[in-house]
Request: fold
Amino acid sequence: MTLWEKMKASPVLGGKEGVIGLAVLAAIIFVVLPLGVDIFRLNLIGKYLTYAFVAVGLVMLWGHGGILSLGQGIFFGLGGYAMAMFLKLEASDPLSTKIQSTPGIPDFMDWNQLTALPWFWEPFKSLPFTIFAVLTIPALFAYIIGYAMFKRRVGGVYFSIITQAIALILSILIVGQQGYTGGVNGMTDLRTMLGWDIRTDSAKYILYFVNGLLLFGAIFLSKYIMSSKFGMLLLAMRDKEERVRFSGYDVSNFKIFIFCLAAMMSAVGGAMFTLQVGFMSPSFVGIVPSIEMVIFCAVGGRASLIGAVYGTLLVNYGKTVFSETYPEMWLFLMGGLFISVVMFFPSGLAGIWDKYATKYGWFKDKAEPVKKPEVSIAEGEAQAVLTETTPETTLAAKTNDAVIKKATRKKAAPKQTEPAPAIDSNKMRGAEA
Amino acid sequence: MFGYSMADIGNIVVMQGFSGLSMFTVLLLMALGLAIIFGQMGVINMAHGEFMTIGAYTTVLISKVAASYGFTNYYFVFAIAIAFLLAFAVGYFIEFIMIRHLYKRPLDTLLATWGLSLVMQQIFRSSFGAKEVSAELPEWMLGSFKPTPDIDIPINGVFVMVLAALVTFGVYMFMYKSRWGLRVRATVQNRTMAGAVGINTAKVDRVTFALGCGIAGIAGAAFTTIASTGPTTGTLYIVDSFMVVVFGGAASIVGTIASAFGIAQAQSILQFFMTSSMGKVSTLLVIVTILMMKPEGLFASKLRK
Reply:
C-alpha cells in the first residue's frame, strides 16, 4: 500500500474526505496564512488559533459527549495564568525591578504592598514545572468538578449552570486578589522565556508554528479518540445515556475523562495564548469568553473537529473586522449568530459542507468503506430526548453509508418541528437531575 | 471579632441584613420568573436579566415623564404595571418566534437566549446610551426611619419588600390556586395527556414564558428604587438568579424564597467583613459546593430517579 492508501484506509483520519480536510487545513495554517499576511495579522491569527484548542475540546465534550460546559474559560485561564506566572517571574528579576520597594517580585505585587513572593508562586520559577502545571492543574481541577458532578449524575443544563458559576467565581477571584494575580489588568509586560525574547517577529513566527503544530496534535489525538471504542461509547452516551449505563458501563468515568481532556486542551491553548499575545487577563476567564468559545465551536459545527477550527477563525475574524469598523454592530451580529446557528444551522459550517458534499458526491470513497464515527448531529441531541425509536444515530455512526445517514437526517428533521411529540418530562428531568 | 464590639456587630448585622433584604427582593423577583421558566418549563433563559432591564428602563422613562407633569408621587404603581405588561409582551413575542422551536433542546435554548441577551443589550445601549440612568423616586420613598439611633432602615427597601411579598403571593395563587396554574402544571407534568384532555399546551407554554418575563419586568421596576440602570444591569444578576433557582430546587417556590434570602443575606453580610468580591466569591463557592453534594437543591420535590 502506498502512503496515500494507508492514510485513506486509516479509521483515525476518517477516510479520503478526512485526509483531504486535514490537508487543506494544514495548508491554510502552515503555508497560505504565513505567506499571505504580515506578522501583525499572523500573530492575531495565532491568537485565534489558541481559542481553537478550546473549540476542539468542546467538539469532543459537547458535540460528541453531549456535555455543554460553560466554563472552558476556567481552564484556558488556568493554563494561560500558569504560563504568565513563569514569564512574569522571569521578567521581574531583581535588576530590572530595582526601583521597586521590594526588588525581584512582580510589579503588581509591589504596588499592592506585598514584600515577598507568595508560596504558590515559587515553583513557577522553573519552566518544566510550569509546563507540568499547564498540563495537570486544569485537568486536576476538571477532575474534581467532574467527579463531584458526574458521579452524582448531574448533567445537562445543571452542569452548564454550575460550570458557568465556577467561571464567574474564578474571574471575580482573580480580579479581587490583585496582589497575587495582577487584578483586572492581568499580568502584562511579559518579555522573555528562558532569555528568549518572545516579542520579536522571529519569535512570533516560531510561536505561531509551534501553536499550529500543537493544534494539529490536539486534532489528531481527538480523531484517534473518536475513532476508538471510547468515541463510540461517547456518542452512545450522548444519545442514550441510560442504555449505555444499563449495558454495564460506568458512564461517569467516561464523562470525567473527556472533561479532563477538554480542560487540558484548553489549558494548552491558554498557555500558547500567553506566549503569543504577551499578557493574560481575567477577561479571558469569565462567563463571556467561555460562552463565546462555545459559539466558535457551534458555528464550525459542534461535531466536527476541523469545522471548529474554521468556526473559531471565522467568528474571530468577523469580530476583529466589525469591532474595528462598526463596534456597535458587533453585538447585534454576535447575538444574531448565536440565534441563527442554534435555530437554523445546528450542525454549523460542517453541516452545510456535508450537505453539499453528499449531495454532489464529492470525496466519496469508492474503495473499501472505512469506519467513520463522525456523525452530523444536532438532531442527535433532540432525538436523545424525544424519541423512543431505535438509536439511529448510533447506527449511522457504525456505517459509512451516506444513504442511511441521509435517511436518518430526513427522518429526524421533521420530528423537531412537530409540536409536542410524546415527551415524558418526568423522565427528562430524571435524566438530567 | 474584627475589632468590633458585640453591639456594633448587632447593628452591622441588622443594617447589612437590611441592605441584603433589598437585594433579596430583586433576586427573589428575578428568581420567581426563572423558577417558572426554568423550573417549570425547563427553558434556560439567559436573557432573563435583560427582561429585568426592560422593566427598569420602563420605570425610569415613566418617572421622567411623571416628573415633567408633576405627579412623581403616584407614578410608581403605573410603572410597575407597565413594566410587567411590556416585559410580558416581549416575552410572548420571543416565545413565539424563538423559544417554542427549541423546547426539545434545552442546551440550545441557553445559547439562543444568550444571543438574544446580547442583541437586547445593544438595543438598550443604542436607544438609552451607555451611561447609567436612575429613576426620580417619589418623595415618600426617600428617607429612612430609625428604630434605634444606630440603625437606619431605608423606606424604599421596605417598599420593594412589600412589593416582592405581594408578587410572590400572586405567583403562588396563580400557580397553585387558579385554573391557569392547573393547566401549567398539567402541561409540565405530562404534555401529551394535557393535550389530550383539551389543554392548549402551546398557548400555556407561551403564557407561562411571558409571565416569567413579566415578573422579571417587575423585578426591574423594584431594581430602580435601589440602584441605577445601565444596558448591562441584567447580566449582573443572571448567574445569581440561576444559582438561586437551582439551589432552592428548581420547581419549588418555598425553596426559591429561602435560597434567595440565604444567598442575598450571606453576600450582604460577608461583604461588610471582607471585600465585596471575596464576599461574593465565598457565597458562590459555598453554593456550588453544596450543589455538588446535593445537586437537586434544597427543597426539591421528591422524585424517584
The first strand of chain B starts at residue 144 and ends at 145. Chain B touches chain A through 56 residues (CB under 8 Å).
